[in-house]
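User: Design a sequence. Structure:
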């Protein structure tokens, strides 16, 4: 598991920071974010990079990423201590933190 590998390479007292796209904290923001991710972002990719599919894939991969609480639990299960997260932009992005004891 990747979390255990990250823990293994840290020194005691070392800190892991994970900045990831995550799940919006409100239903309205979630709907707006989905519309942006699945309609606007691929259209911009098609116009700018002539590649809508890569941007559609990006949105789909973000959706499959664990939510804030699941990632927090994964960090604790892997052995990180004092795990917590901070939502940014209404949960669209979250910063997780954990320490190696």
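Assistant: Done.
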């Amino acid at each position: 598991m990747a979390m255990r590998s990250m823990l293994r390479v840290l020194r005691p007292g070392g800190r892991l920071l994970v900045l990831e796209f995550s799940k919006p904290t409100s239903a309205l923001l979630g709907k707006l974010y989905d519309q942006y991710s699945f309609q606007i972002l691929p259209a911009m990719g098609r116009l700018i990079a002539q590649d809508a599919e890569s941007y559609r894939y990006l949105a789909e991969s973000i959706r499959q990423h664990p939510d804030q609480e699941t990632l927090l639990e994964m960090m604790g299960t892997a052995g990180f201590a004092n795990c917590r997260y901070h939502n940014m932009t209404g949960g669209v992005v979250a910063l997780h933190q954990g320490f190696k004891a």
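The domain at 1-22+65-101 is CATH 3.40.50.150 (Rossmann fold). The CA atoms of residues 43 and 52 lie 6 Å apart.
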